Predict the structure of Hydrogenase nickel incorporation protein HypB.
Amino acid sequence: MQIKVMRQILEWNEDISSKVRSILQEKNIYMVNVMGSPGAGKTTFIVNLIKYLRDKGISSGVIEGDIEGTIDAERIQKEGFPVVQLNTEGACHIEAKSIENILPYFDLDKINMIFVENIGNLVCPAEFDIGENLRIALLSIPEGDDKVVKYPLMFIKANAVVLNKYDMAKYFNFNDGKVEEELWERNKEAEVFKIDSTDESEIQPFAEWLIKKYKG
């Protein structure tokens, strides 16, 4: 199956995000916006997550956002999941219009969830509603424990924060208690998960939390 590569179209966002949300709600599809820096482990996190969900009878599709290239989409495709590559050609975020344009390339009667891997940075993606149900912020241990203070909007708007590559905490001066305190000062509702996403078994607590959100 060939990967469909889409190009981002930039248009006014707010009204279109509401339209996207209505389309997905009508089809009972849950959309999750996964955000984080380049190298935070977003693709590995998504792959392990959708494999776990598949074993639970929940089918997923992926919108893979990158400035250029199809490397991560090819990896997802090899796992047997429907994926559409979105290349923004320089834009630092995904907008709702692009999501609207991509949805027809999925069989919306055969999937339960769509995961959007947003462009890798901690600034622009947080500013744009794309019609998602949940926002997940990945913060990997090697990035450091000062990111909540430096990039607050990303964490203020997140429903959950994943401290990824947590197995590396012993090699870095990373204070997870400080991160949690600074997060909850700004966002009392955010859930925190500590995951080594290369270990497929560690995805379970997050996946079960997500399933509960999906089932309402």
Q: What stands out?
A: Helices lie at 14-26, 42-55, 71-78, 96-102, 147-150, 152-156, 176-186, 204-215. The chain has a mean pLDDT of 93.
